[in-house]
Each structure stands twice: as structure tokens, then as C-alpha cells.
Amino acid sequence: VQLQASGGGLVQAGGSLRLSCSASGGTFRNYAVAWFRQAPGKEREFVAALSRSGSYPSYSASVKGRFTISRDYVQNTLTLQMNSLKPDDTAIYYCNLVKRTAEHWGQGTQVTVSS
Questions:
Q1: How far is C-alpha 33 from the geometric centre of its chain's CA atoms?
Q2: Residues 34-85: pLDDT tens digits?
Q3: Which residue of 17, 85, 93, 108 has the smallest Cβ count within 10 Å?
Q4: In degrees rounded to 5, what are phi and psi of residue 47?
Q5: pLDDT tens digit sequence for 17-38
Q6: CA dihedral defined by 69, 73, 74, 77, rounded to 10 degrees?
Q7: H or E element: which one contains 3?
Q8: Rounded distance, CA 42 to CA 76, Å?
Q9: CA angle 110, 112, 115 (to 5 degrees)
Q10: CA of 92: how far to CAs of 1, 107, 109, in Å?
Q11: Per-residue buried b or exposed e for 25-63, using 16+ beta carbons within 10 Å of the residue's own CB
Q12: Chain mean position to CA 68
């Protein structure tokens, strides 16, 4: 599976961005999907996840209520709608597909939130 992330950029605090991750070369519906992020000097951390069925979204406490994860089974994409962005949200964001026998990562897209 190949993953191509896009949608990152520079935004002011309080603004919004929408990240997308396009999957190809595999059976998208067989994977749970997730977003992770890594800020400079920090470990990669979980942001949001969604099950294979598209049910049961989960979010880290730091983004809950501001971010929304979704997936499209026709376009084979997952998205992360990010609202009310804060400077602490600045990081490289990575999309992730996982099933019992495989895991795949996108190349990352930079999100920078200015104060």
C-alpha cells in the first residue's frame, strides 16, 4: 500500500486545515486508519483513529472536540479536519493504515500554526 498525504501548511492560531491521505495498491476497507504527529524534539504521538467499518472514532485528549477523522471507501482516502488550531498542534502529521498482518505509513505533511 502506498500512502500520499497532503493538505498541510501554515495557518494562524484559531484557523482550520484539512489533511488528506490517499491510499493505493491495497484493499483500503481491510485497514483501520489513523493519524499521528511528531513535533520537533518529541516522540511521534497518536492523534486520531477510525475502525475498518468507519465507526468508533477515537481521539487524543489534546485534539478531541477540535479534530474530526473520516474515511471515504470510494476514493480510498482518509481525512483529518482540524479546527481551532493551536501553536501546540505544529508538527509533521502522518497517516497510518494498519491490520493484523501489515502496517503502512505516509510520508508526512507539515502543519505549522502561528500564534
A1: 8
A2: 999 999 999 999 999 999 999 889 999 999 999 999 999 999 999 999 999 9
A3: 108
A4: -115, -55
A5: 999 999 999 899 999 999 999 9
A6: 40
A7: strand 2-6
A8: 30
A9: 175
A10: 20, 9, 5
A11: ebebeebbbbbbbeeeeeeeeebbbbebebeeeebeeeb
A12: 9
For the chain, give the number of residues: 115
CB atoms within 10 A of CB 10: 12
Residues contacting residue 101 through CB under 8 Å, at least 6 positions apart: none
Q: Which residue has the cell 501489515?
A: 102
All cell numbers assigned to 46: 497518536
* Radius of gyration of the chain from its Cα atoms, rounded to whole angstroms: 13
